[in-house]
Amino acid sequence: MAKYRRDRINDAVKQEMAQILRDVKDPRITGSLVSITAAQVSPDLKFAKIFFSVLGNDKDEVLKALKSAAGFFRSELARRINLRITPQLAFEYDSSMEYGANISSILKTLDIKPLEEDEDDEQA
């Protein structure tokens, strides 16, 4: 399968999963801000990794809730996206938001003085 087709399928799965996430009535999911950050569908379309981030609640509780609702997500995904095979869903926590916040806090603590233009002119 061509890479561009798989990228389109990944984007479609990500968008639809974000929409389906709004319909879930589990308080572990609705009680915190959960967002779908990415989706990776295997080349044979049998498996899909859904990456999510959480703001507020415990990520382990949200992961348990997402795994328990995987059947609902898969059936809704089959109804909304016309694929020959509806992939089995596996959920993974995406820690890139925490990583970015950590890098940002480190950069804020650095005390770097800006270069003066006079020094640049003298060296040239």
List keywords for this structure.
alpha+beta; 6 helices; 124 residues; GMP Synthetase, Chain A, domain 3; single chain; 3-stranded mixed beta sheet
Briefly note the structural class of the backbone.
alpha+beta
Name of the level-1 CATH class: Alpha Beta
CATH superfamily: K homology (KH) domain
Tally of individual domains: 1
Q: Could you list the spans in which at least 5 consecutive residues all have pLDDT below 50?
A: none
Kindly provide the radius of gyration, computed on alpha-carbon positions and rounded to a whole number of angstroms: 21 Å
Count the strands? 3
Question: Would you give the CATH topology?
Answer: GMP Synthetase, Chain A, domain 3
How do the strands of the widest beta sheet line up side by side?
A: 1-2-3
* Average pLDDT figure: 86
Order of helices and strands: HHEEHHEHH
> How far is the N terminus from the C terminus?
55 Å
Largest sheet: 3 strands, mixed
User: What percentage of amino acids are in beta strands?
Assistant: 15-25%
How many helices in DSSP terms? 6
CATH architecture: 2-Layer Sandwich
